[in-house]
């Protein structure tokens, strides 16, 4: 029997930043199913297609953690959080949480972002190592791991 890997979603318009995060995840020896979307609009559409994605990815949808950038085209991170907040009430993604993954250190943005109870952390790009990433990810997804063993 194949071990199911906990699913996560990386939402970032910068391909290099997505690659760096995936490399850190690998370096941290985190075995995860990784979905990637290049902006908040794509990510919202991915989540909104709940029923079809549950069929398409029976063991890996919905993601339990979303790494979210702030500065993106179409729908930015803050706009995503507003829409995601509404979406969580309509479909079965209430256990899905967000960890910000941004180069922005603006306090006013952090205050808005952290006002959402489903945002469980804020990582500044380039300011952390694999061990810290693993610790933060495990703190968030640890309660879900029994579902994936």
From TrEMBL:
Signal peptide: none annotated. SUPFAM superfamilies: CheY-like (SSF52172). Keywords: Phosphoprotein. SMART domains: REC (SM00448). InterPro entries: CheY-like_superfamily, Sig_transdc_resp-reg_receiver, TCS_response_regulator. Gene3D superfamilies: 3.40.50.2300. Coiled coil: none annotated. The modification 4-aspartylphosphate is found at residue 69. Residues 7-140 form the Response regulatory domain. PANTHER family: RESPONSE REGULATOR RCP1, RESPONSE REGULATOR RCP1-RELATED. This is Response regulator. It comes from Pseudoalteromonas distincta.
